[in-house]
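ok so I'm stuck.
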Amino acid sequence: MTDDATEKPERPTREQLLATLPADRLYAPEMDMWVRLEEGGLARLGATHVVAAHGQFMYFTPRPPGTDFDRDRSIGVMETAKTAVAIHAPISGRVAAVNEAVAGDVDPVTHDPYGAGWMFLVEPSRLEEERPLLLEAAAYADWLAPRLEEKSAEVPFDPAEFEQDLTPDPNQGY
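replied:
not stuck anymore, here's the structure
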């Protein structure tokens, strides 16, 4: 019999990841962002399911339309009850539009990151130069799988030490 409290969560395999990742997008792995090239030269940007898995985001504050930005610079902030996390741009460009539904309610980002949870529509400024930095879905799955496996192997604390800390000491209490 196993103790459910100490079992590590199952991490998806490469094949499961690949089935989750839409093939019509490019991925910026170090930012956990996706890019879908649209007709007319625009690009739609969103957070991957890795960001969505945090599930504790409460607010999204995007940069307004007309804002110019460089790759890997902040184009918005996602906030939890305790912290703010910068959303880094996977490509350089100008904000053409913001998904107002997401700006008012982050649920679409956590429940449908590749659909209704998109965040920005942008005019890319250096796509040809930056395109090699983006990965196709299969390459992103290859990049992501070992990192998720590494995370699943991490144990935040030794349960035996935790139990020891709660053992009453007659001289000092807990």
